[in-house]
Amino acid sequence: MAKKPQTTSPLQFIPQDYFRRLSINEIFADDKPLEIDLGCGDGTFLLEMAKHYPERNFLGVERLLGRVRGVCKRAEDAKLTNVKVLRLESKYTLEWLLPEESVSRLHLLCPDPWPKAKHARRRLVQQDFLEALRKVLTPGGEFLFKTDHPPYFEWVEEEIETFSKFNQLEWPEDAFFYPKTDFQKLWESQGKSLQALRLQK
Ligand SMILES: C[S@@+](CC[C@H](N)C(=O)[O-])C[C@H]1O[C@@H](n2cnc3c(N)ncnc32)[C@H](O)[C@@H]1O
């Protein structure tokens, strides 16, 4: 039997043009503060945030289509109107698509650590990423990063020191509502702990 063609969810954000910067109201029509979850995976964090903060908008960015569809479906089932998901590569999204000074908080949680030395240059957080991040954050906007991989954490600290255009903020656990991601739960169930960093533009 022929497979039914899959329809695209209205919550999957598909840019009209991938070769120019978006304007903010192309993503969400209203003017709520925008938060981005880069590599949102199965969307556990993204959806909990969207439920908790209806006064903010949340865009998940994820390259795997199955995950994008899954997150959109769960958001639709939960009747969330402040979530969308973009299927695209994180760095491209930051460098070329997101409007300048449009993002109030950008979350990068448990990104691929590329643990082998010969692959380290594939890590997302590097000088060009930080420059693109600085452009898209609003004044006072924040970057929130977590990893279970100590060498990646050290790498990010060094990159940030070299970049030197952000202020580091304290991030005590009870500072604000911040749900655990799917990977965080997995790593913690294996006895691993995470390191976290909070920066401000
Ligand atoms: C280790 S998982 C973490 C998922 C989620 N942030 C969490 O903590 O549960 C990394 C996710 O980022 C996605 N990803 C990895 N590299 C990416 C890239 N360059 N652009 C977009 N998504 C990416 C993967 O497909 C995966 O879903």
TrEMBL record:
Keyword hit for S-adenosyl-L-methionine: yes
Coiled-coil residue windows: none
Keywords: Methyltransferase, S-adenosyl-L-methionine, Transferase, tRNA processing
Gene Ontology cellular component annotations, sorted alphabetically: tRNA methyltransferase complex
Residues involved in S-adenosyl-L-methionine binding: 37, 62, 89, 112
Catalytic activity: guanosine(46) in tRNA + S-adenosyl-L-methionine = N(7)-methylguanosine(46) in tRNA + S-adenosyl-L-homocysteine
Domain of life: Bacteria
InterPro entries: SAM-dependent_MTases_sf (IPR029063), tRNA_(Gua-N-7)_MeTrfase_Trmb (IPR003358), tRNA_methyltr_TrmB_bact (IPR055361)
Pfam families per record: Methyltransf_4
Protein residues bound to substrate: 116, 148
Keyword check for Secreted: no
Pathway stated in the Swiss-Prot or TrEMBL entry: tRNA modification; N(7)-methylguanine-tRNA biosynthesis
GO molecular function: tRNA (guanine(46)-N7)-methyltransferase activity
Enzyme Commission number: 2.1.1.33
Family, per entry: Belongs to the class I-like SAM-binding methyltransferase superfamily. TrmB family.
Annotated function: Catalyzes the formation of N(7)-methylguanine at position 46 (m7G46) in tRNA.
Name listed for the protein in its UniProt record: tRNA (guanine-N(7)-)-methyltransferase
Protein species of origin: Persicirhabdus sediminis
Lineage of the organism: Bacteria, Pseudomonadati, Verrucomicrobiota, Verrucomicrobiia, Verrucomicrobiales
Gene from which the chain derives: trmB
